[in-house]
Fold this sequence. Notes:
The protein is mostly helical.
Amino acid sequence: MVKTEEMMEISDLLLTLLQKEDLEQFRESFIDMHPYDKAYFFRRIDKENRMKVYSYLSPKEMSDIMENIDLIETEGFITEMDPQFATMVFEEMAVDDAVDILQELSKDEVASFLAIMDEKAAKEIKTLLHYEEKTAGSIMTTEYVSILATQTKTETLNAMKEMAPDAETIYYTYVLDDQKRLVGVLSLRDLIIADDDQLVSDIMSENVVSVSVGRDQEEVAKMMRDYDFLAVPVIDFQKHLLGIITVDDILDVMDEEAIDDYSKFAAVSDIDTRDTNPFKSAQKRLPWLVILLFLGMITASLIGSFEDTLEKVPIVAIFIPLIAGMAGNAGTQSLAVAVRGLAVGNYGKDNRLVLVIREITTGVLVGGVTGIVVIFVIYFWQGNFFLGVLVGLTLLCTLTVATLSGALIPLIMERLNIDPAVASGPFITTLNDITSVIIYFGMATAFMSFLI
């Protein structure tokens, strides 16, 4: 987000006040700012000034800042605070946000914070910490408003007044039976327009859309997008209400999943952006690069096996980068379309054949057009019509195969319960290099008499 000139001026003023250690003026200027702007300023200052901020703000005020900072940065801020102060910050935060940060810390650090934390807050956090990462349970919050179906509107509003200050959202009120099972949902609008003596059971909607506690967070995000929910309840197998997932958590999930998929496309998944050590960074990237190195050696050995063809018609060598590059680009385009379609749920079981047929057809059309263009270019450039036909036919075949592989490999990987994004661009590109070399030199060898 690009900051306005006014915001930059305020940040400079706050920094000056920190350096002068003017507590009163700093708080007067800082407290009324939007939490996001507070976080923006806090992230820009050095450790020496951050330590002053910790002493100037209350745990509650600090929690507002921490809830607006990316998780990849929070670990360093939390661990540099006084442990007792950091614990109080956790207690003031929304439970799900506190859990998100604690999951970034080591087990020893988590145990240390929980040991000195308020018993009630520690219990709520422990409840969420034991859920598997990237599931509905790991991103839900236990701070919601729930009522009984036998309550009246007036009783419900009184109960909401008590629970609302600690609730993440009050737009939805969840209705439970006497065994704490979810039986309905009540919107704030329906509650407001109801008569004072109406029972909740008469106002609520019994058609409640919920998710199981172990459901994958990406599936939850898709569902909330499709239904346009502000929040969704999380239940166990007996329909007991365990928590809710709010739209702000889902936005974080979508951002996280997008970054993860992008990283996998570049074959650099699971790389921590906080690492400044080049040796650690190299250690994480090397496995993929070594695999791609060996695949590249296969390509080189294939070219070497056509040494006789290269010796008799050396001009064919100059078009290897052109053909391999076109195949790699076409395959990556098809891969991106397929992975994105699978990610947003566009390709169900009935639509996958349509995707494959469409990509094959696209490959034939693109290969045909580029093939015709290259025939004329090579003829006017080199004066060799048959060489142009060879390269043109090769492009037709390789682009068709490349688009097919780009669409088919993600489908196969998903069928095997492997993240389709793992079929990364570099991996697809290298495979298409091998395929294009085989097709190109195979055709060149078969039609060598026309080329000499």
